[in-house]
Amino acid sequence: MSRDFYIFSNGRLKRKDNTIYFIDCLENKRTLPVEQINCIHLFGEIDLNSKLINYLSQYGIMLSFYNYYGYYSGTYYPRKKNVSGFTVVNQANHYNDYEKRLYIAKSFVDSAVHHILKNMRRHKEGIEDLIERIQAERKNIEKVQRIDELMGIEGRIRKSYYKSFNKILKSDFGIEKRKKRPPTDPVNAMISFGNSLMYTTVLSEIYKTQLDPTISFLHEPSVKRFSLGLDISEIFKPLVVDTIIFSLVNNRVITFDDFDIDEGICYLNEKGRKKFISEYERKLGTTIKHRKLKRKVSYRMFIRLECYKLIKHFIGDEEYKPLKAWW
Amino acid sequence: MFVILTYDVGEKRVNKVRKKLKEYLIWTQNSVFEGEITEGKLKKCLYEVNKILNKQEDSLYIYEIKASSHIKKKIIGIDKSFDDIFL
Lengths: 327, 87
Known about the structure:
The complex is a heterodimer of chains A (327) and B (87). Helices cover 50% and strands 16% of the residues of chain A. Chain A has nine helices and twelve strands. Chain A has a four-stranded mixed β-sheet with strand order 1-5-7-8, with helices on one face. In chain A, strands 4-3-2-6 form a four-stranded mixed β-sheet. Chain A is globular and about 60 Å long. Chain B has 87 residues and is an alpha+beta fold. The two termini of chain B are 24 Å apart. The chains are: A alpha/beta (327), B alpha+beta (87). The A-B interface holds A 1, 3-9, 17-19, 22, 24, 30-31, 33-36, 274, 277-278, 281 and B 19, 22-27, 35-38, 41, 45, 82, 85-87.
């Protein structure tokens, strides 16, 4: 039942009465029930002290920070409670053995492509050629022997995919080329914003499992980043973020008024971010009947299940089969 | 599951009960809390509140709604929207 809170106002976050209080700059108080919080996202200018951080750590609540433009800047990640040396050692083994690493990396890409094609088929008028091109490219995934080749395939698929956005998106929204740093048009801004939300969600789900977020397979593990989060969000980006963009634009929920353009940098303003996040939260809360578990499972839970499947794969329990949305 | 909790508690204990409930649910009005909660957490919460209550004088009513999609909430007057995810 835990949920995420998003703070846009400026103010102070503090521990009081054994729970969390948020006091905004006009001295309006609001309590956040500590037992209900999963993660707090800070978009405004917030004061907080170590007492709060200590308290949040007790409950394993993560704090994510975003800068003025809404870009993800970092997460306060409390001491991990679910640790298992055995799992981590096996996870690292799967990285060290190139064959094993390649298998997992391929699974991630294949699942991502599956979801990309699923999105494209839903809006297939006028993009049949792009779909075919991606399908042809997908066949190469099986044969690939090296991770950088795999990344190349993925890059080419993504390029065709983004090209199709111009046909899928109605109204005046369009995308010329994916630009990340910084995004220059509304669609790029939405992709960037959505991807950073996805990354934090995946990270908070990894946190609840025994996996080590720094050992990744598709992306090269390196210092200063939790690259396993990048790997797993690859699967969910087309499934969650891109469908949100399509529905927001095509239902005319989001308009050009929801973006600010400043010296060539385009970003969602507060109104736009709120629209995007409400849709994002709604999407993550949607449930689908799981075929194996025989019960309803939310998109957020699917992310966690992906982590559990990886653990099972690492400890040699069950071979990893990536999520391929069947609905 | 969704619950609505109302309480009528002696003056001495009212603050203690309110503070405890604030950890679990969203305060809607004086002596009224509501919110989405799991069964386990509700049990834990009620156990803790139970220790504060004086059974001879106080009362606490719990309305449980198993399917939260069945709730229709209407508001007359000021909507304080304390359950908003945006702050």
